[in-house]
Amino acid sequence: MMQPLLRSQLKTVTFAFIAFFIAVVLLMYPEQAFRSSIRGLSIWWDVVFPALLPFFITAEMMMGFGVVHFMGVLLEPLMRPLFRVPGAGGFVMAVGLISGNPMGAKLTSRLREQGLISREEGERLVSFTSTAGPLFIFGAVAVGFFESTSVGIILALAHYLGAFAVGFLMRFHEPKAPPSKPPVKKTGFILLRALRAMHRARLQDSRTLGQLIGQAVTSAVQTLLLIGGFIMMFSVLTHLVNYVGITTLFNRGIAHVLEFFSFPASLSEAITAGIFEITLGSQLASAASPAIPLMFKLTIVSLVIGFNGLSIHAQVASMISRTDIRYAPYFVARLLHALISSALTVLLYPLLQKHLHHMPAAVSVFHPLQTPLWTGLEWTSITILVLSCIFILCERMRHRSVS
């Protein structure tokens, strides 16, 4: 086996060579770098910043008000048996499903910093809560690229079912690791116990409303500046790597794999681009030859969205670097999510194809009165309400059996 010192030296040389190579390419093609950087800045300022800032601020405030502890008590009977994470992970899952990447990683890091989850539980949690948001799937991909909301249903079902499947599989990650301490079991109505836990957490936080709002805004803006830097950097790298022609070798290798599974080899460019950035990969897949069946295009898009792209990988790695949560389990989970989502797309497309043609070709995702699809917020609210009713019934049945 390679000695640790030699391995560390090789890593240093490799990283230094990559950084030097990027610097040389930037100097050789300054105009291309500038244009791609402007494109990344435009995506961040026009889409990412206004879309994520309200979620970041609201999530910070909810954590200060003790909502995490409320959902921790309420969802403990669901999250721990299914995913081997505390009930507080339900808060991360709900917000992550609504807002999309990289909210799941940010909130997981916060829970770990507050000691509400262990390292292994954080690795499980971030693996299945780092999902694409409904606005991206239905708005950018379905309506923007494919000009049809109907394909968004297939992509969303495959993506979110794949995320839950990954969460269940990741429960076997580090099986011997000790779990975090569950909330103290107390008698009484579960909803009242959750409210008491939320009240205690708010008192322990002890920040005034003004301090909480100010710190929430500051933290949200700092995080979004970090995300903006990653988006611009990977926008430049993706364009330059493709412009120089480095991706040609990757395209050939991926094309052989696609041909092995009877997929068109021309979709290899979409996969290569999606490895770096999911928006570009999804756009290339949708713009592929009209002769390619739609099922193949959607499968590639599900593969790309499930992997998340190296741009989001870098954002997640940066956010969890403040804790002891490791990046490797997240990377493995992204590979699993990509494979499971693409397989689910192949299975779901024949089942839903005949029902989706009756839907309108395109609708506005920004006006809820004009779209027949419920938003992620509505679905999450209904889910939480149903789960609460189930827990209430379980509690009442338990008390009756005891009495």
UniProtKB/TrEMBL annotation:
The chain crosses the membrane at residues 12-29, 41-65, 85-104, 125-146, 152-172, 212-234, 291-310, 331-352, 372-394. InterPro entries: Gate_dom (IPR011642), Spore_IM_YlbJ (IPR014226). Residues 47-145 form the Nucleoside transporter/FeoB GTPase Gate domain. It holds the Pfam family Gate. Keywords: Membrane, Transmembrane, Transmembrane helix. This is Sporulation integral membrane protein YlbJ. The lineage of its organism: Bacteria, Bacillati, Bacillota, Bacilli, Bacillales.
